[in-house]
Amino acid sequence: MKYRLGIDVGGTNTDAVILTPDDRVVAKTKTPVTRDVVSSIRDAVRTVLKNSELPSFAISHAMLGTTQVTNAIIERQRLNKVAMIRIGAPATLAVPPLTGWPGSLKEVVQGASITVRGGHEFDGRPMGPLADDDIRRFLDEHAKSCSSVAVTAVFSPVNADHELATRDLIVEEYPHLVVSLSHEVGSVGLLERENATVLNAAVNEVASLAATAFEDALREVGIDAALFFAQNDGTLMAMDYALRYPILTVACGPTNSMRGAAFLSRLDDAVIIDVGGTSSDIGMIRGGFPRQSSLAVEVGGVRTNFRMPDLIALGLGGGSRVREVDGQVTVGPDSVGYRIIQQAHVFGGDVLTFTDVAVNEGKASIGHQSPRAAKKLSQKAYREALRLIEEGIDRIKTSAEPVPLIAVGGGSALLPEHLEGVSEVIRPEHFDVANAIGAAIAQVSGRVDRIYAMTGRSRDQVIGEAIATAKADAVRAGANHDTLEIIEVEEIPLAYLPSNASRVRVTVAGQLAGDES
Amino acid sequence: MRTITVADLADLSVGATLLGTGGGGDPYIGSLMAEAAIGRYGPITLLDVDELPDQGLVIPAAMMGAPTVMVEKIPNGGEVLTAVSNLERTLNQKAVAIMTIEAGGINSMIPLAVAAQMGLPVIDGDSMGRAFPELQMTSFHVHGIRATPMALVDEKGNHLIIEAIDNAWTERLARTATVAVGGAAIIALYPMTTKEAKRAMVRGTMSKAIELGRLIRDGHLSVDEKAIQLARDYGGIELFSGKVADVERHSGDGFARGTLSCTGLGPYAASVLRVEFQNENLMALRDGSVVATVPDLICVMDRETLMPITTEALTYGHRVTVYAFPCDPVWRTSKGIKTVGPRYFGYQVDHTPLHRG
């Protein structure tokens, strides 16, 4: 039998869950993160395996979602010194690498940098030959003081030849260096892609430690499974791929949580709201995947072009303060936060919160005291809170049609059964381990995001080529080719350029290789 | 006279994006380059053209082509200086001031670094008062000034001097050269005397962009207070307030064309608004009637902050306020309308001057 094990290592808890081949939850556990990560993963896996009453050999696949890489960047801990090679001179010299980085991170990561000749035009023509001798001279001088190299060539998402040639050179002549190539990390937009590539190079060692911890923990429990890492777009990477592109695991948490919640609700298209004490996050799942943000995302203060879920954060949660000034009633954005259990009316306190008005309105039953608030104020405040939520839901939706709403988080009990623009409100069970479930059910994806010159070719040819490239990428990441499906195709023509060039984005996803049963 | 400091650049970015009317390119890369130049050479002098004597050469500089290309193939930083110097050499005369041809979008930033580097002032103004897609769409052209001799430079070191029989040919030749050098190039064009600039330019648009950006970014003002100032100081007319119901992009012909549809909120609850765009927003129809057309500025802004939104960033559900601002009077002349009126862009309507209500 092929069971899947999903693990989520968070800030406070390590969650683990075992799913049957047809994706039913067999067992789950929540273990506080205590000492080191290895023992925390081992304890969680041991417990969940015991709860499931399955033998260890029944587990065929194990998926890990972890915040370790993100934390390393935020805490500036255990990061590699990076040698940065940019290919494209004399273009790009106006803006050097690491422009706009926070000083403290720059100091830790910066090894040395050079910009050499080479790179390509938007239509794939070379701008000039690759200056490989300059790269050799640079590495001869700096290879000893750096452990990792980031290689970024102009328009490598269109033509990766010069990045690949540089990798071959380094692998052959400087074998102790680990190489990160920009075209495998990010999309068009040189600075953001270079930033992501340098971060990738910097977290190399942290990623290997996390991978080793994962392997060791499973081995100690006697599990011999294929290992995968969850990435920020809600899909998986095989272990060897994750070791090369660890930065793609950044912020997989929100994605796994949304996908897990959607899966538990048996829905592929829905809006998800996570209502906390201070704020609420609203996101959207379309075709089983979170809708991606179109804006540049910052990681540890660095501008990247990562794919992150598009989330709307509302300053509204269970502890949000209710106020009335000149007849205007407001709810939030300030909140009593975790002190809600002392300060809210329903817990005997004297601060009127969103929780109190929901109880007063008969929408929830929480606490041990009746809130002391006028009926009219309660009504107005509750209506105002719903207005904020309904507006947030409407903003995240892609069309005017009513959609199902999946409500999770501690504050979700405060929501009514009917909301504007919502067809039904769903509150799934097992939500407490949604992150681990999100990791366990994930597929493997491949992506393309590059500029194609349409001249001399039909649109269908270009799109076909992009799909084939995305599929090859998915297979490299560990997907079974025969199960690949197209998730998204998008084409945006380049403004102010009459040469018929378009930016094409394609996403495909499929089942894990070796999981055909 | 005033100066442009690093602190002004964030305001200029926002104001220039607003004047870009949905297009014009993200000023981000240009802003980084200007910031580096100011850091190295000090603040930039921004002059009213009347502060300069009549005799003297003014050289406008700009980027041409796809802003998306420049986000990937970042300039080397020397192109603008090369373009301006080439034109100086061709004319055998030194420039006394630099200016931009386009205050909307990334071109608001392009002349700044070179002015800092050469120690020259930037003239406060441009030749559009907004963003337009073609080289002859300038107040200079309307006033009969030739775009050539024109210098075109790429980051590799290629340069061209173009001499053309008219400004339409300049556009055609320069556009072809821009594609050949990789989709983006730096240009210096419309060389003219200070006296000609006084007659033909659109005045004050650089400081206007900075002030607009400062107003929009002001954290102490409410949206209503900002709206009052937009109407009072800039002639802004609120066309609509609502949410994006659909963004339809027509692709395949190589232009970023499309249609934005919005449904109304508040006082516009029963109304719908449609905006036709081709790189920039060109025509707005409320409940089927044309309420604004190019060359007047049609600006889509975030309803909560009034931050401008480019056509690329428009998505369903976005709460927006749509404003129109009157174009410079030069565009209301018959040659102006012929150059940039709705019919030039393929819409079978006449330009209706903006009116309130």
Give an overview of the whole structure:
- Chain A has 14 helices and 23 strands.
- By secondary structure, chain A is of the alpha/beta class.
- Chain A has four domains: 1-78 and 203-250, 2-Layer Sandwich (Nucleotidyltransferase, domain 5); 80-201; 268-428, 2-Layer Sandwich (Nucleotidyltransferase, domain 5); 443-510.
- In chain A, the strands form five sheets. Chain A has a nine-stranded mixed sheet, sandwiched between helices.
- In chain A, β17 and β18 form a beta hairpin.
- Chain B is α+β, with helices and mostly antiparallel strands.
- Chain B folds into two domains: 2-205, CV3147-like domain (CV3147-like fold), CATH 3.40.1610.10; 223-340, CV3147-like, CATH 2.40.390.10.
- Chain B contains eleven helices and 18 strands.
- In chain B, β7 (150-153) and β8 form a beta hairpin.
Short description:
The complex is a heterodimer of chains A (about 525) and B (about 350). By secondary structure, chain A is α/β, with parallel strands linked by helices. Chain A has helices spanning about 35-50, 70-75, 105-110, 130-140, 160-175, 190-200, 205-220, 240-245, 250-265, 340-345, 355-360, 375-395, 435-440, 460-475, and strands spanning about 5-10, 15-20, 25-30, 60-65, 80-90, 110-115, 150-155, 180, 225-230, 235-240, 270-275, 280-285, 290, 295-300, 300-305, 310-315, 320-325, 330-335, 405-410, 420-425, 445-455, 485-495, 500-510.
